[in-house]
Amino acid sequence: MKRPLTIIITLVTTIIVIQVYRGIESSGIFYAIEPHFSGQCEPVHGVTGAEDITIDQAKQYAYISTDDRRATMANKPVTGGIYGFDLSNPEATPILLTKGFSEDFHPHGISLYQGEQGKRSLFVINHLSSGIQQVDIFDISAVNKLAHRKTITYPELITPNDLVAVGPSQFYATNDHGYPRGSSMQTVEDYMGLPLSNVSFFDGSKGKMVASGLRYANGIATTADLKTVYVAEISGRKINVYDRDINSNELTKQGEIAINTGGDNLEWDDKGNLWLGAHPRLLDFVAHAKDPEKDSPSQVLKINFNANQPHVSEVYLSTGNDISASTVAAVSGKTLLIGSVFEDRILKCKL
What we know:
Blueprint: H1 2-25, E1 40-45, E2 50-56, E3 61-66, H2 69-73, E4 81-86, E5 95-96, E6 107-114, E7 120-127, E8 133-140, E9 146-152, E10 160-165, E11 171-175, H3 184-192, E12 197-202, E13 207-214, E14 217-222, E15 228-233, E16 238-244, E17 251-258, E18 262-268, E19 274-279, H4 282-290, E20 298-304, E21 311-318, E22 326-332, E23 335-340, E24 345-350
Antiparallel strand pairs: 1-24, 2-3, 3-4, 4-5, 6-7, 7-8, 8-9, 10-11, 11-12, 12-13, 14-15, 15-16, 16-17, 18-19, 19-20, 20-21, 22-23, 23-24
């Protein structure tokens, strides 16, 4: 009886060790940080925790999703907000667009939807203090004002991180974990690199799972024709490429783009390039989350699709001394905006 038990214990221990090693390896612990950027950056203050940014290219107007996550972690949450930032005005500062909407507003990923006859809407993931996860949809006026239209929640919206709108009330959303926030199993998922993350779809009335087996799914984007969906996988250090069935909304994986970093939010520029903020060293990010005095490297990647194969280039890399834990890189023309999880500013850079 002892021998079979010993074998079982050995096998289980081996599996655990392999998974832990896999998780540590995927954290980028050995990633060399050699700072570089050929342009110039300046800080833009007035926003805290600008985790996601998206740009209306035609209007030259950026929408910034902000939330003071350190205050929330200290059990003293403050109201987050969506800010507007006029890129056409060199003297512009971020303007709060959601004043008076809700005190319990903690936005995360956002998506700009442009429909028929120039109608525009902003989809926002909102983490309520109660633990409820929802998506709030705001219609955008001609002068870039936001009017709340709808609140959506459904069972498959478990741990939403980012989303991409494909219709007036339809969208895909990434769940970065398979277990709800606050669960001890989230820590197990992270450090053992378990592929329990997924992507859900909401068709306007109900939700369903359309992709699974991911390791910390994060940023999500779709091509202009809505036929291809990209999903960044932080722990997987890659971007998954899916074919989208526009009738059933099902996703079929067609390939991967290796990026060797923890990819966060995905944003298109005005030339058809896909940009992302990234975390090359995830353990440094964990340390930064616990202690603001500890910097976490910030990285910006650009993916060009003009060649036969997607070409990935590193445009920006810093130790985190200028801005730590970059999550998004939004580009229009020669302007690059970099946001982050915790910082009290964004970077406005000239490429």
